[in-house]
Amino acid sequence: MQDDVVTLFAYERWANRKVLDACRKLTAEQYVAEPIPGWPSIRSTLYHIALATEFNLRTLAGAPEESIPTEGDLATVDDVARSLERAHLHFEELRPTLTPERLSTVLTLCAIGRSFTLPRWAILRHIVNHSTYHRGQVAAKLKRFRIDPPNTDFFWWVIEQIPQEA
Description:
Layout: H1 2-23, H2 28-32, H3 42-61, H4 77-94, H5 100-104, E1 106-111, E2 114-119, H6 120-144, H7 154-161
Antiparallel strand pairs: 1-2
């Protein structure tokens, strides 16, 4: 189980970097635009990925509550990248403690105005799944700006990890 979680988070980091690199091709106006009325901007979507990732990993790490950045605090793609790197540092601190027993213990967290009790493994899997969902939204928005979205499926990450014959 620990190896599975480590693998998922290596994939998570890789996929986020690919999306952030593609977003760096946007102009400042495109980054905050709403490509379709009612949809949040690319910036809002990346902010949400970073905020949820950092919040959940800080919670799992038992890190003291830090202030929650606003979307304006993460105004650029590089700001989001730094937030995600901070989150992944929390994961690296947690990694040695992720025994099967610890992954099975439950944790209560508060989010979206409710309390949830979940095993730690479920929270870790949720972080990766949640980011995957929202990276797909970013990919759709990049296409509307005629920027080719990167392939961020788990499948492609695994292919990059294994030497391929030509």
